[in-house]
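HUMAN: You are asked to prepare a plain-text protein record giving the amino acid sequence and the backbone structure tokens, both parts labelled.

ASSISTANT:
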Amino acid sequence: MKYTLEKTEQYTLIQLHTEKIDAIKTPQLKTELTTLNAEGVKSFILDFTEVKYVDSSGLSAILLANRICEGSGGILVVYGLQDGVKKLITISQLDKVLNIFPTKEEAIDAVFLHTIEVDLKGNN
């Protein structure tokens, strides 16, 4: 599976350069997420602008990313969902669990807002 990483201090942006996230591609994505988290990444932004199809194993990779982020005090943010993928996430009711935004800018803002909220809670 093709993807690029953009690492910052607050998050790692994973731009997925594939039309499908299925059982064949999911293990690589899960491995990358787990490895990045082990290296200290707490928050991920997943760019789905090129993804047109996700199956149940792809959804499980997204949920894994969400658990990893929550478990380390970070946040998972997803943006750029195509209509078919958005419909599947809605039918699966994952839209109530995931942080979904239409644009990269809004996704980045959500990570920064989460970081500020965590810092404020830590100072109380």
Q: What stands out?
A: The mean pLDDT is 95.
